[in-house]
Design a protein that fits this description.
This protein is mostly helical. 65% of the residues lie in helices and 2% in strands.
Amino acid sequence: MLYHLLYPLHGEYSFFNVFKYITFRTFGAGITAILVCLLMGTVFIKWLQKKQIGQSVRDDGPQSHLSKKGTPTMGGTLIIFGTVISTLLWADLENIPVWIALLTTVALGAVGFVDDYKKVIEKNSKGLSARKKLLFQWLIAFAAAYAMYIYREAPPVLKFPFFKEWYLDLGWAYVPFAALIIVGATNAVNLTDGLDGLAVGSTITTATTFLILTYCAGHVKIAEYLQIPHIPSAGELSVFLAAIAASCLGFLWFNAYPAQVFMGDVGALALGGALAVSAIITKNEILLAICGGIFVIETLSVVAQVVSFKMTGKRVFKMAPIHHHFELKGWPEPKVIVRFWIISILLALFTLSTLKLR
C-alpha cells in the first residue's frame, strides 16, 4: 500500500524513491511486524485469559507440562495479523506470488482457528476431525499449487541442490507435488509446536533463510551469478517473509519459556503453508526439507513411532514427537528448545552454502 501511495511521489520528492527498493520495504515490513506483535501482544493475551481460552494438556505427557494447563492459546492469530498488516503496507500489491503466499497463509490459519475454536471454546477435545482437517488442507493446497502453476515464471521442474544441470520435469504432476509439500509442511510445523518457542524459533531461521533465497531468485544479476533459477516476481516475497520472521520474533517475546501464550494450530498451519509456498515459487522444495530439517525430524519421529508400534508392538522413542523423547530422558525443556534451535541455525547456514556449491 505504501509502495503504491508514496513511490509515485518520487518525481517531486526524491526521498520517496526508496520505496522502489525491495530491501528498504523488507526492513520496513520486518520492523512493522515486530512492533505490531509487541504492542498488541499483552492486550491480546489478557483478552484470551479473560475469555478463558486456555490450553489443555495430555495426562500421558511429561509431568512438567501439567503446569501449563490453562495457558492462553490461539496466539498464532497474532502472528497472522502482524504478517497481513505488514505485507499489505509494504509489499507491491500487484505481485501475484505475494497474494498466493498471503492467501494460503490466511486460509490455512483459518482451518487451524476452527480446530482450536472447537477444542478450546466449544470444549470438543477432538476439534476438527482428522479427515475434515486434512480435506480442507488439501483443498487449499491444491488451489495454491494450481495458482502457482498457472502464474509460474519458470518451468514446472524439481531442481536439485549442488547440481545446476540436474532437474526433473514434472509437467502437470507439479500441481499435486506442490500440494503435497504444502500439506506436509503445515503438519510438520504443527507437530513441532510442542515446547515453548520451539516451532516459532525454528520458523524464524527458516523464514529468514528463504527471505535471502527469494531475494536472490528475484534479482537477475545475483541469480545469474549464483546459477539459480531467476524468478522475476519472487523477490517481492522477501517482504512477506520478513513480515513472517518478524511476527514470529515478536510472538517469541511472549512464547519463550515459560510461555505466556501458545501458538495453537491457527499459527502452526499458517506458518507451514507460508514456508512451503515460498519454497515452491523459488524452486527450492528440496532446500525446504534441509533448512526446515527440525520439522522433518519431528515428523519422521512420529511416523517411525506409529509404524514400529503397529508392526512390532514396540516404540522407537519414549514419546513422539522426538522433543518429548528428550524431555522424558531428563533434558530440561529449555535445553531441548535451545539445542533444537542450534540445529535449525546450522541447517540454515548449510542451506545458504548450497548457493555456491553448484
